[in-house]
Write a structure and sequence with these properties.
Elements (H helix, E strand, L loop, with lengths): L49 E5 L8 H17 L3 E5 L9 H6 L6 E5 H9 L7 H5 L9 H4 L12 E13 H6 L11 H15 L12 H12 L5 E2 L6 E2 L4 H16 L11 H9 L5 E5 L3 H6 L8 E5 L9 E10 L5 H20 L1 H13 L14 H11 L11 H6 L5 E3 L5 H17 L5 H18 L1
Parallel strand pairs: 1-2, 9-10
Antiparallel strand pairs: 3-9, 4-7, 4-8, 4-9, 5-6
Helix pairs in contact: 8-9, 8-16, 12-13, 16-17
């Protein structure tokens, strides 16, 4: 057993970590066409020593996070004397993943984004442990809203959704108050967002609404807007994927941005925000409303100093016929070259580190106490990864330690049980977003920009990339 610091135990994850369904398996040398065969249910030999490699070890400049990580590994190894964890800093990188997998140098388990898991499944590059999920009390009872992200067409599962979120309307409650708006009644529709933007800009002099438009974020947010206005960005699957960007939902979304910018003059004067700049401005009280992942609290309040009472979060605005709300997050991936015992050990680690606090009172209170001790939030809104009943039980366990104003997010929290969570485009998502960035920029910087022409060009560009494989 490797030397570790001993200390905190159970589910030591900072911020809004969500776990999700597990899927995966283990095999060696499976063909991409057939996919790796499913692993047997986890029943490892308790007397057999198993060593697994876990990626994403925090770097040395993240001292507190690294200490918590090492404490968790030490406590896990104490609970499982036959399992040794060798951790490393390896993170998922789409440009090197395949080569490292073929070369046998990837860890047993690490995080991959929602956008890439389907491609990994199609190429036989993720372990199928469907039976591990079905025979596990915790893993088989996780939130079904999230499970489809890691499943193939036959219902086999290939990963654990360890962190998930939906998109939301993020707003400055202080600016709402200064503009004479009710921060406890945030906009719910695009018309209401537009009206609030005009009022905020007129009354406070700050941009009433603006979004990031660079680094693929503009395309990501435009896609989210299109979902809410009735259209997805791709149809079909695999080789039969059709890119659908020139749609009414996309055009309506661009018209909204055009109107806020050109008709209302409520979008400020900087239209090349990146995701960090918009967070800086939001934290500084210089943006009334924006769109982003609903897990933005840590980034703007903890990291950038926005007053906690000023951070507002509402459901993503809706149009007349929404498809649903875009969801995303991180999936724990399992190496198809791992042995059955290694996959089982990696699953146990994943449950311990990401899920225990939702199903075990001691783990929940230990986590909450450690968060409070580190001046980190407890009680942030999140997409529950367990059943609604179990999540209410969890909230009861951590209630004494909640240190965020949950009442400020009530509209968002109330929206989650009925939300239809739609995943990001399954094929070439980042390339699709990159093609849409300049479309968003053009509409915000050129009053005569033609949305249909811009979308047709982007659609052809992305379809060529999809067809090329």
């Amino acid at each position: 057993m490797s030397e570790r610091r001993w200390g905190r135990v159970g589910g030591m994850v900072s911020g809004i970590a969500l776990a999700g369904l597990m899927v995966g398996g283990c095999s060696d040398g499976a063909s991409p066409e057939a996919g790796p065969p499913a692993a047997a249910a986890c029943d490892p030999d308790a007397d057999a020593d198993v060593t697994i490699t876990v990626g994403e070890r925090p770097t040395s400049d993240q001292a507190a996070t690294l200490e918590a990580w090492e404490n968790a590994i030490a406590a896990f190894e104490e609970l499982h004397p036959n399992i040794t964890i060798e951790d490393e800093e390896t993170k998922y990188d789409v440009s090197t993943f395949s080569a490292l997998l073929v070369g046998g140098t990837l860890p047993t388990t690490l995080q991959v984004p929602f956008t890439d898991i389907q491609s990994l499944i199609e190429r036989g590059q993720a372990a199928d442990i469907t039976s591990n999920v079905s025979d596990d009390d915790v893993l088989s009872s996780l939130n079904p809203q999230l499970t489809s992200v890691t499943q193939d067409a036959e219902g086999h599962t290939y990963g654990v959704v360890r962190a998930a979120y939906t998109m939301g309307l993020v707003y400055d409650r202080s600016l709402f108050t200064k503009a004479g708006l009710d921060p406890d009644a945030p906009p719910a529709t695009w018309d209401e967002v537009r009206d609030a933007a005009a009022t905020i800009s007129e009354k406070t002099g700050q941009p009433g609404f603006i979004i990031p438009t660079t680094g693929n974020v503009g395309g990501w947010l435009l896609t989210s807007m299109a979902y809410s206005n009735g259209d997805v960005a791709e149809e079909g699957a695999g080789d039969a994927t059709t890119v659908t960007l020139d749609t009414p939902g996309m055009r309506d979304s661009l018209q909204f941005l055009h109107d806020v910018r050109w008709d209302l003059d409520a979008a400020g004067d900087d239209f090349l925000h990146d995701n960090n700049t918009i967070r800086d401005d939001l934290a500084a009280g210089a943006v009334g409303q924006t769109l982003n992942g609903a897990n933005l609290y840590n980034s703007v309040v903890i990291a950038r100093g926005m007053p906690a009472d000023d951070f507002g979060l509402a459901p993503f605005p809706t149009g007349d016929d929404p498809v649903g709300v875009l969801g995303g997050g991180n999936i724990q991936w399992f190496n198809p070259k791992a042995t059955p015992d290694q996959v089982c050990a990696a699953l146990e680690w994943t449950k311990y580190y990401f899920l225990d606090r939702y199903v075990d009172e001691e783990a929940a209170t230990t986590w909450a106490k450690s968060q409070v001790a580190d001046d980190l939030p407890v009680g942030l809104p999140e997409v529950p990864v367990v059943s609604a009943e179990q999540y209410e039980t969890y909230l009861g366990w951590i209630e004494p330690y909640v240190n965020v104003p949950r009442e400020n997010y009530q509209a968002y929290i109330d929206s989650l049980p009925d939300a239809t969570i739609v995943p990001e485009p399954a094929v070439k998502a980042q390339e699709l977003y990159a093609a849409l960035d300049p479309v968003v920029q053009a509409v915000l910087t050129r009053e005569d920009a033609d949305p249909a022409e811009l979308l047709q060009s982007a659609q052809s560009q992305v379809q060529d990339l999809v067809d090329a494989g």
